[in-house]
């Protein structure tokens, strides 16, 4: 770390539908990222700013990905960051199919053509103790006002189906349920409206990050919840505040497809690092 404080730390700024990330390639720049460093980096006024921090490391597949939220907490899954990094690695290696390991497990990413990237986020976790919830119960309709559905995608989710997702004051609604006692590890909170049998409008409050323009794992969880409740089929278009994702719940897992953007590359300066 002392050497890095003298030379600086390269990073990339990426986003998927406005869900934004700082990405550090630790294969090239070995660095121990502490929660304190993550929170300093997440500061949009004094740092760089992000919804999640993603680290690229060596893995048994093409790379191993590690994720931290803007509050410094860890997350096993981050779908949009996975797609962004997959696109970067595809361009780096010339491959159109990758295996990326995460704390969620091994994920397959493919070039979907037309600049789109797909990732298989794995099978959903539907049992109460896998999500996890605090006690045994039916995960389809939780004993919470609004009867939301609980789903695990490597991180916990709580999906409310409402008449108008845009009418929900998510800045107040989200924190109330992120910390609900039924979710011992906190939860991502989604509000979704059914537009048609293959079309949803969704907004999201992310655990450890707050209100975000999009969330890949939340989109997957919402698609699974809608299909389980008979509101849609297994292939859905999901319109988020930042754009549109397509989700397909197949036998081998939940596939998510959408655009990505590598906005810029930069260097964390030695002076900034030394001040931490």
A few lines on this structure:
The chain has 276 residues and is α+β, with helices and mostly antiparallel strands.
Could you characterize what this model shows?
20% of the residues lie in helices and 39% in strands. The protein has a 17-stranded mixed β-sheet that branches. By secondary structure, the protein is of the alpha+beta class. The chain has six helices and 17 strands. It has two domains: 2-120 and 260-274, Diaminopimelate Epimerase, Chain A, domain 1 (Roll); 149-251, Diaminopimelate Epimerase, Chain A, domain 1 (Roll).
Keywords summarizing the entry:
17-stranded mixed beta sheet, alpha+beta, 2 domains, 276 residues, 6 helices, 39% strand, Diaminopimelate Epimerase, Chain A, domain 1, 20% helix
What order do the helices and strands come in, and which of them pair?
Layout: H1 2-7, E1 9-16, E2 19-25, H2 35-42, E3 52-57, E4 63-69, E5 74-75, H3 79-93, E6 97-102, E7 105-113, E8 116-120, E9 149-152, E10 156-161, H4 170-178, E11 188-196, E12 199-206, E13 210-212, H5 216-228, E14 235-240, E15 243-250, E16 253-259, E17 261-268, H6 270-274
Parallel strand pairs: 2-3, 4-6, 10-11, 12-14
Antiparallel strand pairs: 1-2, 1-17, 3-4, 4-5, 6-7, 7-8, 8-16, 9-10, 11-12, 12-13, 14-15, 15-16
